[in-house]
Amino acid sequence: MPFNLAGFDFAAVGAGLIIFIVFIALMVILAFVPIGLWISALAAGVKVGIVDLIGMRLRRVSPAKIVNPLIKAEKAGLDVKVTQLEAHYLAGGNVDRVVNALIAAERANIPLAFERAAAIDLAGRDVLQAVQMSVNPKVIETPVVAAMAKDGIEVRSKARVTVRANIDRLVGGAGEETIIARVGEGIVTTVGSSASHKEVLENPDMISKTVLAKGLDTGTAFEILSIDVADVDVGRNIGAKLQADQAEADKQIAQAKAEERRAMAVAQEQEMVAEIQAMRAKVVEAEAQVPLAMAEAFRNGNLGVMDYYNMMNLQADTKMREGISNSGNQKNQ
Predict the structure, then answer these.
(1) What are the residue ranges of helices labelled H in 9-49?
(2) For residues 147 and 233, what is the distance between their CA atoms, to the nearest angstrom?
(3) 64-76 and 35-44 are packed helices; what angle lies between their axes, rounded to 10 degrees?
(4) 203 Cβ partners below 8 Å, 6+ apart?
(5) Which pLDDT value is given to residue 139?
(6) Gyration radius (Cα) of the chain, Å
(7) What distance in Å separates the CA atoms of residue 66 and residue 46, rounded to the nearest whole number?
(8) 8-state DSSP, 167
């Protein structure tokens, strides 16, 4: 069956196609251009153009993270420009936190420029917390610090340090760990210079006065307002323990030296025993030569039979007298 184009309405189809294309184009524009943000900024009296919003999209900047803080700053009466917020966002900063810090500083009458706040934020510090700490000081509690007075008694103390943020030194200034370390060093110095632990117990404020006078906040991001000693306790008698350890060490040294002398005496005794044994061996060897010499004398005619008997009688008489003398000594004992 042939297709009849006589009744087909080309005008209606063309109009529908145009409407569809316009609708698709409008959807693309609405998806790319944040019209809602533009209307919100316009209602708040913030001058942000459509072109600026499109430029943010092209520069891969989230318009919401720029426009919303800008509206907040405008309502707070701050002189902040879109380019400043966008530059800080591109640098990796937190735009909303910086604006909140500027508003808090403005309300607390603390001079804080946008460049300073942005630098503090990029340095990795919480600029809003720093402003809040400038208004409401923070209390840092140190751990228990053990120190020994001159009398050898250990004193254990703990301090509370009240600090306020120094905004001008937040960039490049030391943190809380440095404050705690310096306070601990000051406590050790103060207690160590005391003649007795009783002085520290009677006047614990001498610790806070001495430590506070050292200027411990130099080079830090804080300003120390006060140092208060929270607790002071008496610890171990380290001096007595050191003396006992020294006495034990001296005892071990004396025992080692005595053992060395004993070993030397034993060695000398063994050496003397060896020498005596060697002498006895020589005597036995010499006695073994006597019969041989006598036999040689008999053969050569130098010794007669009577001479031999007289010598034997003399030896027997000598042994008898020695036996009588030994028996007499035993009776006397």
Answers:
(1) 10-32, 35-44
(2) 11
(3) 10
(4) none
(5) 87
(6) 54
(7) 12
(8) G
- Which tokens in the block code for residue 237? 């008698």
* CA–CA gap between residue 152 and residue 235 (Å, rounded): 10
Instruction: Record the tokens describing residue 327, joined without a space.
Output: 């028996």
Q: From the DSSP assignment, how many helices (H) and strands (E) are in the chain?
A: 13, 4
- What tens digit of pLDDT does each residue of 144-202 get? 888 888 778 888 888 888 888 888 777 777 788 888 888 888 888 888 888 777 777 77
Give the span between the Cα atoms of 236 and 242, in whole angstroms: 11
**Residue among 136, 140, 91 nearest 117 (CA):** 91
- Cβ atoms of residues 227 and 220 within 8 Å: no
> Which of 241, 210, 237, 221 has the alpha carbon at shortest distance from 179?
221
Q: What is the DSSP string of 109-160?
A: T----HHHHHHHHHTT--HHHHHHHHHS-EEEEPPPEEEE-TTSEEEEEEEE
Q: What is the pTM of this model?
A: 0.54
Q: Give the position of tokens 């529908």.
A: 16
Q: What percentage of the chain exceeds 70 in pLDDT?
A: 86
pLDDT tens figures, 55-97: 777 777 777 888 888 888 888 888 888 888 888 888 888 888 8
For residues 224 and 216, the answer to whether their CB atoms sit within 8 Å is: yes
What are the pLDDT digits (tens) for 230-241?
777 777 766 667
Tokens of 230: 């929270």
